[in-house]
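P.,

For your records, the input lines for the assembly:
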Amino acid sequence: MGSTQARIAIDAMGGDHAPAEIVAGALRAQEELGVKILLVGDPEEVGAAVRKHTSASPLEIIPAEGTIEMGEEPLSALRRKPKASINVAMDLVKRKEADAVVSAGHSGAVMAAALLRLGRLKGIDRPAIGAVLPTLIAGKPVIILDVGANVDCRPKFLEQFAFMGTVYSQYVLGIETPKVGLLNIGEESSKGNELALRTHQLLQKNPQIPFVGNAEGRDVLSGNFDVIVCDGFVGNVLLKFAEAVGEVALQILREELPQGVRGKIGTSVLKPNLRRIKQRMDHAEHGGGLLLGVDGVCIISHGSSQAPTIFNAVRLAREAIDNRVLDRIQSRYKEDSQTSAVSGQQDG
Amino acid sequence: MGSTQARIAIDAMGGDHAPAEIVAGALRAQEELGVKILLVGDPEEVGAAVRKHTSASPLEIIPAEGTIEMGEEPLSALRRKPKASINVAMDLVKRKEADAVVSAGHSGAVMAAALLRLGRLKGIDRPAIGAVLPTLIAGKPVIILDVGANVDCRPKFLEQFAFMGTVYSQYVLGIETPKVGLLNIGEESSKGNELALRTHQLLQKNPQIPFVGNAEGRDVLSGNFDVIVCDGFVGNVLLKFAEAVGEVALQILREELPQGVRGKIGTSVLKPNLRRIKQRMDHAEHGGGLLLGVDGVCIISHGSSQAPTIFNAVRLAREAIDNRVLDRIQSRYKEDSQTSAVSGQQDG
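Structure tokens returned:
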């Protein structure tokens, strides 16, 4: 890929605001990001949504039938609906007709479809969802994984997450030697639950992972770590908590804004900024989670995604494609399969 | 107790700012909260700290020798130093010469000393640390437990935490029927890791716990729940993350404050409020965690506690004493030991 135009398949039927907002984000992405968008969904519905924006037909529409609903059990629904939009989108990547999938649909179904249709990368037992969040240090994001794919983990899974996060940080975020931390309840290596204690040992022994030690809750957004690994239960709780933080901060700000005449001046000056503050904390800003460890680039966006989130999700996908993240994960595993630098197979 | 004056033993030697800040908080607490403070520590050091504030000697000093240092392994250190301040403080409660202990020292040591010297309440397998946090709804705090005492939990432990949180919410926070939530990755009862799935079932069956369902990360500070239960690993990560949120919000606020002349007006108006905003999010405000499930009221304050935190910790202790939280936990377990309403002994 690299120099050729990235082709992104977007599940136009997935999410609370599909297809209208998905299409709006897709149109903007193709226009501004230099990618080719393949809109997957019901041709009539998607076509109508496109025509609301433009009379030209700038986006290719790939027909699909139906979608996986939020209440459905992913595996059986995917089997029952082979032509559902997410299945069709994954097949485009499998047939190398697209380089990535973006979906704001049922996240369990996206994961399951990716596993079933694309399979895992060699050396990876469990794919993880990575979320890239801003930190206190401007321009220095942190990738946290897993934020929801695996709720019960073994130490070797976390070791693999750490490795994938390292590659992502190096090649997409441009950090030569990323600081990798293990989410834990204390700095000392003696602290933690059974999973953390055993993972700590694996990470310390792994020469491929620039492990610097445990990261506590307060360190997550400090900017002192570039990669933070945890199981998908803790990561999901933390991510959703973080997403609510913008709202909490704004609410407190509103309540604490000074009253009276001086207060009114302050408020009027601040108001235009409130939106920007909220935006900075919002999930819209980071586009979605990157499903790392499957044989294809997949971005899982929030179910409530609107156009800006989809736009950012496409950007995230393009970055992963342009920087050949999957190849690099894969090739490093190949290189080191003799030296067994990733100890998972034995220890975890 | 109730009508008689609450007697609070404060570990004057525990914490980064001991004894100066501990003593300052203690003096203010005795003056304003109508409690009797027993300062436990080295008589000379503590006496000197008191004399910096007043020439009178308003506080009783109970002599102790040494303290448990942060790097020490709690159990062996507690045994090696029987007269350490935290041991002496716990013994005061055991001999019924004090009603509660407040300490900003080594939290593992405080827990271990409480278990060794006071023992567990009947019916409780594992004590939990509960943290009372403000929510988006003013005046409607939430108690989260466990935030650090038990990193690997069984379902019945979480069920007991839910019960203790319910009692606390009812009798201290005055919520007649508290909404109890289980921290999880989704609302549906089918979501979660093994621990969450099994705990969900126990909570649903327990008539003593007003369980309303799963709480996601975004619900923690929403005010929609009065009690949230989780294992001590997740709870600790979340609490420390929440404590850092004040700082993150302030930082973003500073960066996003408008520039130029209008900006300067806004900033000058806002500045006095920044401190109040930070305070509202700070751990100082909630005083510390309540160690629930041991046979005595124990408040574990942050190691970095200064005078205001200690003051609030004493208030928290007094509320637990005045509202007879331990008796109520104990007596309900007694009442229901026949009906086995807490299923832990069988299912967990």
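Two observations worth noting. Confidence is low (pLDDT under 50) at residues 338-348 of chain A. Residues 7-121+293-321 of chain A form a domain with the Isopropylmalate Dehydrogenase fold (CATH 3.40.718.10).

Regards
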